[in-house]
Amino acid sequence: MRVILNAVGYRQDLYPILLSTPSPLMRVFDCSILTHIIQLLRHMGVDSLDIILSHHPNRIEEEIGDGSQWGMRINTHLVRKPIYVTRTLRYLAMSSDQTRFLLGYADLLPAFQLSQFENYSDSQAQLLYDSEGVWWGWGLFSREVLCEIPKELDYEKLPLIIGSHKKVTVSGLLSARTFPELLESNRRCLNNHGDELLLKKGHEQSSGIWLGKETSIHSSAQLLPPVFIGDGVEIEEGAKIGPYAIIENHCVIDCNSVVEHSMVFENSYVGIGLELRNMVVSQHTVYNMTLGSHIRVKDSFVLSKIAKFSVKEFIKTVFERSFALVSLIALSPIILPIALIKGISSTTCLRFPIQSNGELHEEFSLYSLNLESEWMGIKSLPCLWNIVKGDMRLTGITPMDHTAFDELSEDWKEILSRGEVGWLRLSSVEPPIDEMGAVLSDLYYVTNKSFTFDCRLILRWLWVKLIPFGTPKSPLAQFGVGTSLKNENAKGIFPQEQLGCADAHRKNSPHQRPT
């Protein structure tokens, strides 16, 4: 039997948190729901697993690896859109010598055992339903059935396509498809109603209280069971946690705050005196379960993200800002006269990296001299002030506004969202032929950025500016890529379909994600 999980990961009801976290990585107790599913399958004797990815595939692959940590082999398959899942299912069925396939969602785990399918071994398909006749998305299919399904079909419509099949009724499940279902799944586990689905539930310090490692709780704080508190959490003076509170790893609950019937995602700060009831909090974003809506809190003293301190990043930031300040002072005899004569203009640009609340990007004003040409980079010298302020880095990607960013396809947005705006860019080495050339340069930079790569970029920029005849034909040519953009596909950087279509980076293009 071959097991295939549908981990497309895009559930609209999880917006806006899904912009940074796919649904299979939503946590139930001490790990993601996908991890619980894999552990349960391994416990059932499954030693090989296929997972179909689409939304944030890199994050899911980082979470699961190759499966060696569970003693199993995991193969991943990437699809552009959720509707292409059935195309991959057809391919896996046609190319496999297995006769039975267990399909399921990677963000939903019903309470079942493989033995429940044994009584129906002669049937072509057996699907798991709840008591009200709703399909859970899990089922056992024959090879013949999967080979005949349409190439483009909504996965949830499989029962309608396959026709007659056996229905296996199961009760109880864990789900991360919506915020209410995610919170209810954690509540079930807090009440010990999910023990048949979870192989481990952290360390229970006392009855109904689960505490992670390196957790700090003030002596005056109240813990009202049942509660789950993850690793590295700090509960300050007078805070009240519970009942039915789930606090994930590396969070801070400040003085006199209240968290009950709520869930706080990892790396979140809850401010002084804040009361959370029936809410889901992820850093700056709050989802109100009662109203069914979310808001973004801009005041960092109320809700904010807890950033991990990095010595390397701190040194890099201090160096860049110091370099920019010294350069700005040294070049002021050039900048000031031109600024007085021509003036300085500002452009509103997005601040990268973009956080989970994708509809509310932070912005900054990018400064430049009012010159017609970018001779020797003089026009962009006022950008040094942006580096001093921390709006951008010394090296990075091209600044862009809302309009330009919204025109990109979803997968390109996903990649660029991890970058940072920089003064020196790959396109600074040689101006791109068109807009797509600039975007491709930025995509390549984000996927290959490192300290060594930045040093090579700076040296190459100095070479080009000081020795004009040393300018390469392509900004990517000096980084071991080749002058043809088609060569990027051989490197596995960009999908062939996107490079072969001039409009592939547009939102309405059919080429949005590699297969």
Structural commentary:
- The protein folds into 3 domains: 2-175, Spore Coat Polysaccharide Biosynthesis Protein SpsA, Chain A (Alpha-Beta Complex); 202-305, UDP N-Acetylglucosamine Acyltransferase, domain 1, CATH 2.160.10; 311-499, no CATH class.
- The protein is 28% helix and 23% strand.
- The protein has 16 helices and 32 strands.
- It has an 8-stranded mixed β-sheet, with helices on one face. Strands 5-4-1-6-9-8-10 form a 7-stranded mixed β-sheet, with helices on both faces.
- Strand 26 and strand 27 form a beta hairpin.
- Helix 7 runs antiparallel to helix 9 (383-389).
- The longest helix has 20 residues, at 311-330.
- It is globular and about 85 Å long.
Short characterization:
The protein is of the alpha/beta class and 515 residues long. It is 28% helix and 23% strand.
Itemize the secondary structure elements and their pairings:
Elements lengths: L1 E6 L19 E2 L2 E2 H11 L4 E6 L3 H8 L8 E6 L6 H10 L5 E6 L2 E3 L14 E5 L5 E8 H5 L10 H5 L3 E4 L3 E3 L3 H12 L12 E4 L2 E3 L4 E2 L4 E2 L3 E3 L4 E2 L4 E2 L3 E3 L4 E2 L4 E3 L1 E3 L3 E3 L4 E3 L1 E4 L2 E4 L4 E4 L6 E3 L5 H20 L1 H11 L1 E7 L12 E7 L13 H7 L3 E3 L6 H5 L3 H7 L5 E3 L1 H4 L5 H14 L2 H16 L20 H5 L4 H4 L16
Parallel strand pairs: 1-4, 1-6, 4-5, 8-10, 13-16, 14-17, 15-18, 16-19, 17-20, 18-21, 19-22, 20-23, 21-24, 22-25, 31-32
Antiparallel strand pairs: 2-3, 6-9, 7-11, 8-9, 12-13, 23-28, 25-26, 26-27, 29-30
Helix pairs in contact: 7-9
